[in-house]
Specification:
It is a single chain. Strands 1, 2, 3, 4, 5, 6 and 7 form a seven-stranded mixed sheet that branches. The protein has seven helices and seven strands, in the order H-H-E-H-E-E-H-E-E-H-H-H-E-E. It is 53% helix and 20% strand. The chain folds into two domains: 2-76, Orthogonal Bundle (Helix Hairpins); 83-234, Histidine kinase-like ATPase, C-terminal domain (Heat Shock Protein 90), CATH 3.30.565.10. Helix 2 runs parallel beside helix 7 (201-211) and helix 3 runs parallel beside helix 4. The chain has 235 residues and is α+β, with helices and mostly antiparallel strands.
């Protein structure tokens, strides 16, 4: 009975969280479309502006749905890891390339810490770890400072490789640090929603790392930046 009650409570909160996250972009899209239908569609400047805003909210809806599917697979244990040996630095370089435009919009530099010249091979699911790196680096850009810097470091820890993603951004207040991996938790709600976040990115990261039987942690100082570190088995 207690297990059933716990599951019912979990489900209630989860559905409530999903409803809350989906309502905002849906209401926004409705507002833009109704404004256009009420006559603004004849004003070309307003027309283009509102269609762009509606498109941005549709992109956010798409992101939320994709992340919900991912978190569902992870929490249900449906994710099947395809373990392989690969160069984690090379994968990080690919993620840097994917995010270079996003970083350039805020003039944020993406680079490696000292000592990252050598090859670091890990044994993991490559595509899942790509998502981990993408989510962490995207997060550092989102909450970074203009003209800031995001650096990735690799450290040999005997049987594991420690990967750290560090930025000199806004940082996270102490009372929020323990919640950053919770589903739909946002330190800065208005900023995260404005930039299209689903609120699931870090939770997905945690689940993926734990599926690899590894750990992830964060240390942060407000106004100085944050460092997220996770380990992977050495190949």
């Amino acid at each position: 009975i207690d297990k059933y009650k716990a599951w019912a409570e979990y489900r209630r909160h989860f559905v409530g969280d999903i409803s809350h996250e989906l309502k905002t972009p849906i209401f926004n899209i409705q507002g833009y479309l109704h404004t256009l239908l009420d006559g603004a569609i004849h004003d070309e400047a307003v027309n283009v502006k509102f269609i762009k805003k509606a498109a941005k909210n549709l992109e956010r809806l798409h992101t939320i749905v994709e992340d919900l599917e991912a978190i569902s697979r992870l929490e249900s244990g449906e994710l099947i890891l395809e373990m392989q040996a690969f160069d984690i630095k090379k994968l990080t370089e690919e993620v840097f390339e994917d995010l270079e435009i996003k970083a350039a919009e805020r003039n944020i530099t993406l680079d490696f810490k000292e000592g990252a010249a050598q090859n670091f091979r890990v044994l993991a699911d490559r595509e899942s770890i790509r998502q981990v790196l993408t989510n962490l680096i995207s997060n550092s850009i989102k909450y970074g400072k203009d003209n800031g810097r995001t650096r990735v470091g690799f450290y040999d820890m005997d049987k594991n490789i420690l990967i750290e993603v560090a930025d000199n951004g806004l940082g996270i207040p102490k009372e929020h640090v323990i919640h950053v991996f919770d589903r739909f938790y946002r330190v800065d709600k208005s900023r995260s929603r404005a930039q299209g976040g689903s609120g699931l990115g870090l939770s997905i990261v945690k689940h993926i790392i734990e599926a690899h039987k590894q750990t992830i942690n964060v240390r942060s100082t407000p106004n100085l930046g944050s460092t997220f570190g996770f380990t992977l088995h050495k190949a």
